[in-house]
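Review form for a predicted model. The reviewer records the input and the model, then writes brief findings.
Reviewer: anonymous (R2)
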Amino acid sequence: MKRMKKLFLTMMSGLLLMSCTQQNDLTFNEMVNQTEITAKGIDTTVLFYESSATKELTGVKSVFAGINNTTIEVLCNSKGETESKVINSPFMEDEVIHLPVKLTLEEAEQILLDAGYGTGVEGVADWSEVVLRRPLEPGFNVAQYIFTTSKGFVSVNATTGSISPVSLEGCPCPFTDPCICPEGSVSDNTYNVEFDVDYQKCSNNPIVSVGGVDFGSAGDVRAGRACSKNGYKNISKIEADIDLSPMVQREGFTGDWLNAAFYAVSSDKQPLGDGNYCDAEFTPSTGQPGYPCPFCQEIDFLETNGQKMFQHTLHLADGKGGPQRYEVSYTEAANTDCWQWDEMQSASGNAGVHSLVGKIDPNKPFHMVVDFDEDYTNMIITLSQDGDSVKVFDMTEPSYPYTPSDLDMSKLKDAMNVGWWFTPSYHDDWSPGTNDPNWYKNSGGECGWGTLCGDGGGWKLSNLVVTAEEQI
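Model under review:
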């Protein structure tokens, strides 16, 4: 960073008159959340830039972008009391961060301590001030906890937990004689995925950010597709957070037949726009987005029928309609008159059928991990939430009975050498549950399709991180 500004300014007089021995009621991240609530009470469209605090954690100061190039500053003490002001000039020192971040301050502080930044007192990390921000300088592709330590500034990636000292120019490991970068703490092959918008269906573009895409919610649905700015070769691991809560069934909206699709396609160039986009199945008509859509290998980490049923598919073929292997899972949300609930429960535990009931609540964000083994003969997909996890795809276990189980896995290895691009979308072209297995009744009326745009649903992908040998 060209200059490291003072991380914490003096709180307004009288706001934080608290005893230094007083027990803090709110954590750093809880105070940050409270400042966001206050800022949104002033302007619902605010964007978060940064929050700062001293080690005593008696309060935080947060900065938000408001409408008409204004800046909103919000102070919050550990009791949750806030005070705000609007500044008639833009804040131009950070990139926008989408809250909440994956790691809490307590988790980042433990990483700092484990990396050797201690005070000499057991369990006490060496820092005096912290700021949660994403600086404009190159090298900061995602939110960071930047600590002021006795050895200089040290950043902890708020998504991956990687740690690195930073200089005034933002360079990693600037300290010499000796260099104090913790050995092995920074991975050269972990990437925070960025996106471009491909197309939109509801008048408003999906909102793209580092690590994710927001397809909106009721009243502001942003259906369409995005494409990662980069491709990734020889991937070993993918992690992401997924929020399907906007598709919750409510009066006048079933959420059925709406597909929150998180998938990737293999191409040697960015599959963005007509003539460039490709996949393994879809054949658009003239004028539809992506036309003419040539064949390429495809991995569907998640395709949904609303919140109720998921499908996880590996396509490895020589042309469209070729071999694929899939497994399915379902949630408690499918317990309605429009779904074959008894049949779904009876199928649980059969080959390729997974119940998420009691494990994954679709009204809350959940985490996805995709692991590939070294020789690309297996892919495992695991969903987790609040300490519970469910494996929903594993090549070493039986697949759904009506799909080919013998795939040519050499095609996966070949595609890894070409590169994979993430192409998340939100659409109503197709959803699982209407083929094999046929669990969705789709009988019209109260069991008809959910509305895609307007007061429909939406979903959000965030904190997407990929571990790969190379980025293209």
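Findings: Residues 28-166 form one domain.
Further findings: Helices lie at 28-42, 105-114, 341-347, 410-418.
Recommendation: see findings above.
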